[in-house]
Specification:
heterodimer; A: about 180 residues; alpha+beta; 5-stranded mixed β-sheet; B: about 750 residues; 7-stranded mixed β-sheet; 20 helices; about 25% helix; about 25% strand; globular
Chain lengths: ~180, ~750
């Protein structure tokens, strides 16, 4: 067995240390070592997006990232999406639009949609479909998911929540790469 | 819709009680189970499609540090052949056992031959590589055409055809031949002015649930077994594990975790018995999860098929005869949904003369499992393509043709039973009047297709229990696994019965020791049957509420009025909250339980309209617009009904256009991943408009019909008919992938 490496990273705004083997994926460490089981495994092959996390502002499939690669980096998982004031507008809109059925793809969709709205607060339906094409859902036919994301974007624009969020993201601890 | 509002809670769209945990990542699915001292199990799978197992050497694997147990088929008891119910089908228990872990023969690529438990998944994986299996390779049989040939290699030495109820005498791969027959088809075709006959081939497809199968088992030191798993039916798992391990059900408790999709594919057990016997050997809890390649190679699929359809109609457009022959891949063991396909394909039409022959055929692929309206989509693709062609030859609008020939209440189903209250014509009228059908479709290589579909639905056994909490709310426990919002729709029906707001009901899905027997969440039965159970539960609670206050007030319980959480007798009032607070002084806790075997389910009909554009250079089909009209009975939670319709349509679209198992000549599945087994993404689909027509089922207190399965029935037929309008060729194979479309257009 290969020697374990000590990794330090910021996960959902908190400084975290963990030991991992070189062969372990970020997905495996998040779920098995750190107990962040909201990150789901659907394919372990980068095809379904159920394990989506945001890594230094970039949406990634955590099954395709090795855990040793995240040294000094910042990660947001589904567990870090809701804030002190409760659910994120995306989470609220997923509930209101009944955009989930079994719910196992939902964390990945919400994380992916957040990464989209961070970049583009006013996406078109096509933009949303294009961005979410890396996430598979087998229950909903995507209709209500797309509507939930568009509605969340509208609400965030109205409330200026996007700006506020950008402010928060900037104040989050920055770690040198 | 009547002007007077009929219901208070039913028909509203509350947020599901389990929703917050599911959008925040808190909800616990099977793979999230973690127990102290837990080991990780993995399965060694056959690399061959068809082979005899000569020997299995496990010593090296057992000596790897960290490996705690290895099991093979020899660790499972020998079972007699015995047929038992399995959700939407039946299963022979010996086959079920051999499917979980092969004994003497492997019958498909991915068939389990051994399992390992180790202190980490990585050690378990290494150990699999140290198990040496000697095989005697046999020729694979991969299609029904090959399997039915007289000189085909035989999969199951003891198999004999059930030929219209009689057992055959020769070894065969044809497990059964059944027939549906009414009237005289020969005569019917003689009276026809137009006859269309075609042959269809459809590929093997998978349910595609996002969460892989998983199971965690603990064999306690006293011999009790607890299993945590992802299943559509916890009692079904208990019963199957009991049979496979030859252990009484009383020793097994199954805890259903949240389930990440099933669509019929999570009724049967795969990992559960293996985790249990590994735990027994290792004397520690063992967790097993499949990876996606295992899920595709060794679970699920629904049958590929060969279907011949012949329909005749007279010059007025009335159908005179309908005939079909269906042969379905059962996979490694008998039990394809071919009879279900046969019973469904002509069900929307008045059929004086009908003859359907169906063949259940074993091939070297994974054992077929139920998939949403099992067996229907491929059969209806064939039937509705031929119906469309007949209408076209008669110069009739496809919806008008269906209105002329469609069944209505009192007509007969092809199997001879009489329809009760049904809403097929209502779907046709709503489709005809829909903005979609009224709109003009323009542009080159575009076309509009229509298809209808039927699904019988089901009822069956459900149980629930409830108690009054001191704060006046109701705790509800139920045995129905919540796969897409059933906690909400069951709680809504109890709230309606009790006249309480939705939020006053707190539903929980509980384990097999905590509630009465409940069949799985399959057959579109849960909202109907578990809904019936909680309706009865609510009535029982109201009776008890009245009795308690009547005793307290010293009046006759029949004179107490209960309305919307308030009990009244003359000037005296008591709210449920007051009753809850004071019930200890008024006789003690108040609770009720209810079990039912609900029989009067109502069938569902749907009519779908789709517009497509075909790229004549690449053969790619784009969906421009999709409308699904369905008789939903009463829509308890309209959002969830729409969601069932949209999800079923999306699966039907995948089946129609992209999805197929691809095997090489040796029978190895070569596209066991989601890049190459191509399910629809958000970019592939338009919004899916759901038009709900409500024709209540008189066999349910709130008019519920099942809604979940019929949406997958018409899409392939509707899309095939639209492609025909777009490019002038009839597609007779699924999937209608770009290559097949170009070939049909004679471009390649």
């Amino acid at each position: 067995m290969a020697k374990k490496t000590l990794i330090q990273a910021v996960i959902n705004g908190e400084q975290v240390e963990f030991l991992c083997e070189p062969r372990q994926s970020l997905l495996e460490v998040l779920r098995e070592t750190l107990g962040l089981t909201g990150v789901k495994e659907g394919c372990n092959n980068g095809n379904c997006g159920a394990c989506n996390v945001i890594l230094d502002g970039v949406l990634v499939n955590s099954c395709l990232v090795l855990a040793v690669e995240v040294e000094g980096r910042s990660i947001t998982t589904i567990e870090g999406i809701a804030g002190e004031n409760g659910l994120h507008p995306l989470q609220q809109k997923f509930l209101e639009h009944a955009a989930l059925q079994c719910g196992v793809c939902t964390p990945g969709f919400i994380v992916a949609a957040k990464a989209l709205l961070d970049r583009d607060p006013d996406p078109s339906e096509h933009d949303v479909r294009m961005w979410l094409a890396g996430n598979l859902c087998r229950c909903t036919g995507y209709d209500k998911i797309v509507r939930a994301v568009l509605d969340a974007a509208a609400v965030m624009r109205e409330k200026g929540a996007v700006q506020q969020e950008h402010g928060q993201a900037q104040s989050a601890p920055e770690v040198a790469l | 819709m009547s002007i007077e509002k009929k219901y208070e809670v039913i028909g509203t769209r509350p947020i599901r009680p389990d929703g917050t945990d599911k959008v925040t990542g808190r909800a616990l699915y099977g793979a999230d189970v973690r127990l102290p001292g837990m080991l990780y199990g993995m399965v060694l799978r056959s690399p061959h499609a068809h082979a005899r197992i000569v020997a299995i050497h496990t010593e090296k694997a057992l000596s790897l540090p960290g490996v705690k147990a290895v099991v093979t088929g020899m660790d499972l008891p020998d079972l007699e052949s015995k047929i038992t119910g399995l959700g939407e089908g039946t299963v022979n228990l010996r086959y079920q056992s051999n499917n979980a872990l092969a004994k003497d023969k492997v019958l498909y690529f991915g068939h389990p031959v051994a399992a390992v438990a180790a202190s980490s998944v990585h050690i378990a994986e290494e150990a699999l590589g140290l198990i040496d299996v000697e095989y005697e390779i046999l020729p694979p049989v991969l299609t029904v055409m090959e399997a039915m040939k007289p000189d085909a290699a035989i999969l199951l030495d003891e198999l004999r055809t059930e030929e219209l109820g009689e057992k055959g005498s020769e070894p065969t791969n044809i497990a059964a031949h059944s027939q549906i027959s009414q009237g005289d088809v020969e005569m019917g075709f003689k009276n026809a002015a137009v006859i269309v006959e075609r042959e269809f081939y459809t590929s093997t497809v998978h349910q595609g649930y996002i969460e892989p199968q998983n199971a965690t088992a603990l064999w306690h030191e006293d011999g009790q077994i607890t299993i945590w798993c992802s299943t559509q039916g916890s009692f079904g798992v208990r019963d199957q594990v009991s049979e496979i391990l030859a252990i009484p059900v009383s020793r097994i408790k199954v805890v259903p975790m949240e389930i990440g999709g099933g669509f019929g594919g999570k009724n049967g057990v795969y990992l559960e018995p293996l985790a249990a016997i590994l735990s027994k050997k290792a004397r520690k809890p063992v967790k097993m999860t499949m990876n996606r390649a295992e899920v595709l190679a060794a679970t699920g699929p629904t049958s590929g098929s060969l279907i011949r359809v012949k329909v005749g109609a007279d010059s007025h457009g009335c159908i005179t005869a309908m005939q079909a022959t269906l042969a379905y891949e059962a996979g490694a063991y008998p039990g394809s949904p071919v009879d279900s396909g046969a019973g469904v394909m002509f069900a929307p039409y008045k059929t004086p003369n009908v003859l359907i022959d169906s063949y259940d055929v074993v091939v070297n692929k994974p054992r077929a499992a139920a998939y949403r309206a099992p067996g229907a989509t491929n059969a209806v693709f064939a039937a509705e393509t031929v119906i469309d062609e007949i209408a076209e030859k008669l110069g009739m609008d496809p919806i008008e043709f269906r209105i002329l020939n469609g069944v209505t209440s009192g007509d007969n189903h092809p199997e001879g039973t009489q329809y009760g209250v049904i809403g097929f014509h209502e779907t046709l009228q709503a489709a005809k009047k829909s903005p979609h059908y009224q709109s003009k479709l323009e542009g080159p290589y575009t076309g509009r297709g229509v298809a209808s579909g039927y699904w019988g639905n089901f009822g069956g056994k459900s149980s629930a229990a409830a108690s009054l909490s001191p704060d006046g709310t109701i705790s509800l426990v139920e045995g129905s696994v919540d796969i897409g919002g059933s906690r909400a729709v069951i709680a809504m029906q109890l709230a309606e019965t009790l006249g309480l707001p939705f939020e006053a009901i707190h539903p929980e899905v509980v384990d097999t020791d905590s509630v009465g027997y409940t069949e799985g969440t399959y057959g579109s039965r849960t909202t109907f049957a578990t809904g019936w159970a909680v309706y009865n539960l609510g009535k029982d609670l109201i009776r008890q509420f009245k009795q308690r206050v009547a005793d307290h007030w010293n009046v006759n319980p029949e004179d107490v009025v209960y309305e919307k959480g308030v009990l009244t007798h003359g000037d005296q009032h008591m709210t449920l909250k007051q009753l809850g607070t004071e019930m200890d002084e008024m006789g003690g806790p108040i609770s009720a339980s209810s079990s039912i075997n609900a029989r009067k389910w109502g069938p569902a009909f749907a009519t779908h309209i789709v517009d497509v554009a075909v790229d004549p250079e690449t053969g790619k089909v784009d969906l421009l617009r999709y409308t699904a009209v369905q008789d939903v009975g009463t829509a308890i939670h309209p959002d969830y009904v729409e969601g069932q319709i949209q999800g079923g349509v999306a699966q039907g679209i995948g089946w129609a256009l992209n999805e197929e198992y691809i095997y090489d000549a040796q029978g190895r599945l070569i596209n066991a991943n989601w890049l190459d087994y191509r399910m629809p993404t958000a970019l592939d689909l338009p919004m899916i408009d759901a038009i709900m027509v409500e024709v209540p089922n008189p066999g349910h207190p709130y008019g519920v019909r099942g809604v979940g399965e019929v949406p997958i029935v018409p899409p392939a037929g509707a899309i095939a008919n639209a492609i025909y309008r777009a490019v002038g060729v009839r597609l007779t194979e699924l999937p209608m992938s770009p290559g097949r479309i170009l070939a049909a257009m004679k471009k390649i």
